[in-house]
Amino acid sequence: MRRLAALALLAVASVACSDDSGAPQATASPTGPSTPAGASAQTNVRSGSATATVSGEEAFEIQLELATGDSQYNPPPAGFAFVFKDDADNLITIGGEAFEGSKKTAGTLAFGAVFNRSGRVIAHTDTAGGCDLTMKRSGKTVAGAFVCPDVEDGRYQVEGTFTVELV
Fold it and tell me: DSSP letters of 32-77?
């Protein structure tokens, strides 16, 4: 399930990285040519973490580390995908069209969470306006927050923060 949530988020991010024709935008690879005018260069991620507070039928806080191999950041208007996870297969994914400021989840901006709790799973994926996201880049740091007030039919609320260090 964790890999499925990450793949779904990366699919949303790849849609956000395409132009109106659906064709992918050019990005620079670490060893490839420079990016054509008008396209955004990929900025690799170095490290990061997310903290989530879950409340409702059960309350807990969880800290997850950035999975650098599954994450990337391209400045607006291109796409990004941040995957935070731990050894217990807990997961938070945020991705889609990069932005600065505040936005609700949408077809081009997704939030996902999977929390493994004593043999059961709390899972949520939203691309329909159910979560509020904020994000700001300052130098080589991208930081933000998320609030999802209606997880699993209102049984839970999830809110938290994240920070990602760029290369």
Answer: SPPPPTTPPPPB-EEEEEEEEEEEESS-EEEEEEE-GGG-EE--TT
* Residues contacting 158, CB < 8 A, separation 6+: 52, 53, 54, 113, 124, 146, 147, 148, 151
CA distance 77 to 138: 16
Per the confidence metrics, is the pTM higher than 0.90? no
- Of residues 69, 13, 19, the one with CA closest to residue 45: 69
- Element housing 124 (H / E): strand 120-126
Cα–Cα distance for residue pair 163/48, rounded to 1 Å: 5
Q: Which of 9, 18, 1 is nearest to 133 (CA)?
A: 9
CB 149 within 8 A of CB 157: yes
| CATH code, 2-19+44-166 | 2.40.128
- φ, ψ (nearest 5 deg) of residue 140: -105, 25
Domain boundaries, the chain: 2-19+44-166
pLDDT digit string, tens, across residues 12-40:
444 344 444 343 333 333 333 334 444 44
